[in-house]
Each structure stands twice: as structure tokens, then as C-alpha cells.
Amino acid sequence: MVVIGFSGYAMWFAPFFAHFLPGWALNAVLVIHSEEGLLHSLHLLHPLRQHAPAPRQLSMDMVIFTGVESEEEFKKKRPEEFSGLAGQGKLESRIGTKPPVWLLNFSRVAGTIAILIGLLLLVLTLSAYLRE
């Protein structure tokens, strides 16, 4: 955050920073800012990559929004952890109550919007990067 912030200010106020930075440093700032922007755009795709573990399952895991996972989902996604907690008698503390329908719907909309924004920023960043 500091790197992309400083490089952004250095490009925005280039005449000011040119008083104490050499010209090659301002060029380097442009490259650094572009690379950091690309990395951050790719990081916005993290929910899709992290919460869709199987290629055939391209839906997001609603746990990132609701904080609750049903017993069936937990058993299906992490069978080793499920059997370990069940053996220790700690399964009830791990399983929560099912979230309301409105929260699930809101989570799907918010997640889809986040992924679309990430994809849009990725396309815009790549188009700006490839144009130079």
C-alpha cells in the first residue's frame, strides 16, 4: 500500500518530486506503480480462486460473507477436520445456525459485484499496460 501510494503521489505531483528525484527515478515510479496496480487487480480475484476449490464448482463460498457454514458443507469440504472435531465432541462449537435467505442473496450479489469489479480492473490494467 505504501509503495503504490507513494508512486501514485510521485506521478501525480511529478514537478514537485522532480526537485529531489532524478528523471530515471520518476520513470521507475511509473513502472512500479503499473506493476503494483496489476498485482492488486489480480488480488481482487482472490475470492473466486480461494473459494471455488474445484474447477467444476465455480460458485463462491458464502462463508466469507456470512461467517456460517452448514454441517453438510463442512463435512463435504473438509472431511478430515470434520471427523476430528466429531471425535473430540467439538463439532457443535464449529457449526453455526443457517443464515437468513436475505443474507445469502445479498452475499451472492456482493460477491458477484466484487468479482466483476476485479475482472474490470484487470482488463483496464492490462489494456493500459499493453498499450504503453
Short description:
This protein has helices spanning about 1-10, 15, 25-45, 45-50, 65, 70-75, 80-90, 90-95, 100-130. With about 130 residues, it is mainly alpha-helical.
Question: Could you characterize the architecture of this molecule?
Answer:
With 132 residues, this protein is mainly α. It is 73% helix and 0% strand. The chain contains 9 helices and no strands. Helix 1 crosses helix 3. The longest helix has 31 residues, at 101-131. The two termini are 24 Å apart. The model has no long low-confidence stretch (mean pLDDT 81).
Structural class: mainly alpha
Helix content: over 70%
Shape: elongated
Largest sheet: none
Task: Tell me, rounded to a whole number, the average pLDDT.
Answer: 81
Radius of gyration: 22 Å
Q: What topology does this entry show?
A:
Blueprint: H1 2-12, H2 14-17, H3 23-43, H4 46-50, H5 63-66, H6 71-77, H7 79-88, H8 91-94, H9 101-131
Helix pairs in contact: 1-3, 3-9, 6-7
Question: What are the key terms here?
Answer:
elongated; mainly alpha; 132 residues
